Amino acid sequence: MSFAASLLVVIGLAATTARLADNAANASRLVVHTYALLDGLARVRASALDIELTSQYFRLSPDPALLAQRDAMFAERARLLAHISKLMQDNPTQLQRLRDLNAVVDERIAINRRIEVVRNGEGAEAAARYMQSTALQETRERMYRIIRELETEEYRLLSVRNAEQEAANRRTVAADVGAAILLALLLAANYLTIRRQQRKADSATRQVQQLLERQVEEHSAQLRLSQAYLEGVINSVPGLLAYIDAQQRYVFTNRNYVERFASGRADIIGLTVREVLDPELYARLAPVIARALSGDTVIYDWQPTPDSWELIHVVPQQDSAGRTLGYYVLGTEITERKRAEEQIRSLNEALTQRLDELQHVSRALRTLSAGNRSLLHARDEADLLDNMCQAIVSAGGYRMACVWYRGAEAGAMLQPMAQYGHPGGMEALLRIRDGGGGDPAAGHAVAQAIREGVPRIARRLHEDAAYAPWRKEVTLYGCCIANPLRLGGETIGALAIYSSNVDDFSDSESALLAESADDMAFGIVTFRERAEQERTRQLMHRLTWYDELTGLPNGNRFTRLIHENIERGESFALLQINVERLRDINEALGFVYGDDLLRQFGARLSNAAPAEATVARLRGDEFGILLPDGAGDEAQIFARNLERLLLQAFPIADLSIEVAAKIGIARYPEHGASSHALFQHMDIALNHARMHHLGYAVFDPSYSHAQAARLVMIGELRHAIENNGLRLYLQPKIDMRSGAVCGAEGLVRWMHEKRGIVGPNEFIALAEQTMLIKPLTEWVIDAALRLQQEWLHTRCAVPIAINLSAVNLRDAGLPEALRALRTERGSARGMLEIELTESMLMEDAEHALQVLAGLRDDGVPLHIDDFGTGYSSLSYLSRLPVDCIKIDRSFVNDMLHNENAARIVRSTIDLAHDLGCKVVAEGVESREHWDRLASFGCDIAQGFFIAKPMAAQDFPGWMEAFQAPQMPSGA
After folding, report:
1. Hey, what domains does the chain have and what are their CATH numbers?
2. Locate the EAL domain: which residues (predicted)?
């Protein structure tokens, strides 16, 4: 019976040990499972931020590479979510949260796709407006909330599992102790039973030795068998087992104990512990033995070899009086448990380190996200620097952030541009810099980052002797990272971020903070480019709408004001004032003094005009005044006063020069319903005043004495169109890089029976007014296409550009008529080109855009003629399907002696190239014009320096003999 009980205890000990190892393995598996889940969620969070930053970069700069990078991130995030879903198969609650997260991710992907479509189709501003109208912010917060719920639940499950594992281990250990004690008690009971049986046998032997000798022998045999069984049980115990009496002598031991401590002896029963154990080991165990003999149970872990561990129980045995008779030693193998505990400890350390790293990365990600929001909402460069410094401290939780710019000159001190978090603000930083010569906290780190162009980290600032001059300020901070601000290939400064910890900024965190600095540098570049664009826009606006010499509105602005007043239906008067004898002054004194006269003349007109009037310089020596409510005699009264005022001499070149002026007046709506008619009648009135030596004249229909001749001319023009009385002339265009003839402008000439060759300036306006412009234009187009058909297989087959008028552009049948003519003549795409002026395009911008888009689809390139003299907006111009821009000849002619005109030409060429257009310069009349335009990068030249307009039949011979101008040396 005792043997069976002992065997059951041994089996229980073995099962307990196996269960302990299994629990440790399960704990390791659960920790690794949780760690994989948390790592996947962290990567999903980081991927979400990367996707959002890439989408923001794309809205600022529509680079297709950014879309490819973002789509790759979409795929990687989907893979991560699928992996996380597999890990959560045994947790329905977590799976539901994961489904919610997938739904939010799909919603955000749809929004980003829509923003991409809007950005590509309507531009960055439309994309920004659409983004603000979407639930992008709400879905972002919902996504991060779900991720936090998933992480929180996993951390809770990990804590519960650890607690359950620890409780199970404690129960297992308690069971082991109980089983060990039970085994020891069973062994002791067996031992005492054997001893009693021996005493009884001895007594019986003495009394009836002769009678029971055989029975004693049998009983002894049974006793030896029991002892053998007991020894087998003891030796079968997998751990160490021994009983030692109060005199520290071994009473019994198992084989494992002997092999462990006395491998060279057959038996140690009766020997003392001191005799058996190594002296050094006995000295270590003496306190334990003393405690056991004093009645205390001692439990401790012991590592007998580097690769094994045992759990040792030292349990005292006491009699009924409480005296200690000896103690049991029970050792249980726990190597696997120790290994599992070590693995758990290592995993916990790794998890703790990972969590610390994630906290740093999370801090940097918050900083990066807040910084990008600042970038999106900043108004200018200074606002960007201030907002990003504040975002770094507020969102990231850092101690302080500041931006330092390098001095403009070599050796100049660093300049603090923005800060947040430093006591005393910018004033304190400036005082410290001026007193110590640098950054108060980072010092050399900022200087090195700017000088070397790489991030620098300074740790334990208070221990560094280099920061002794700023000891007081350094005590506020423990660590600093300085990231360079790089603009192209130049480092302009650094973003310094300070932490209270003396040893901060992990590698991942530093990389993200470097991205924040790069984002800031990108924002600085963007705002500087915008500022430059705004300055260019303002310059172009002023050059487009204002006269550079006098500062007054120019003819474009004056014409627009007339249109606006006509649209409002308000009556007004127009005055045209011509300066007489300006040419004489220019020839006698020089253009400088002529320009001075024009400035004084314009100033005198502005001072004399009412506050609500507009004074403009129309062209050359012509000025205009728009008088609101100038009906009746008000305009004449003002003209008389102005005439007297202009009679006063002008101080020019230390001389008093009297300048005569003539004034022509026209009123709306009395004298015309359009700006063209008003200009014409105002000019007629002025000519009338000049011819009759009057100071001013108001338009009178009777002044149009040539009306009869005009009617005759209309009939003759119609006859010329219908009976081939017109001729097509061509003026060549030359590619300035290759020197090849790349096209020609088609010009019409009227072969009049009496007057000879009549130029277009004399009959185009007449044709527009009488609607002869449509058949005239069709004749010119058909003549050009017919010519190209004849030249189809010759060297002369070059594109021909035809000028259209505003009346043609308003003709709804124009696209179909062009299509029919080109089909009839077999014209290839691109061989017929259309030229339109800026002002013509702006009369009905949306209609023009629709018509021109249709022509472009039919293969008809568009050229804008006389660019710079109109008033088109750049935003509208960028929408036009424009292939080529022609710079007006007035700018080309003036650029050799007027630097402002040269700047306009150069700016126009750069603008056209930015819009993807080629540039044609007309009015190229000298070698100097050619060379200057070549230096500006102009594409095509047209003018008398190349060739005058010539009859179409002369063009092949000219082209055969043409030799391109040689490019200047070094060009």
Report:
1. 2-167 (1.20.120.1730), 374-537 (3.30.450.40), 550-705 (3.30.70.270), 730-748+771-961 (3.20.20.450)
2. 710-963
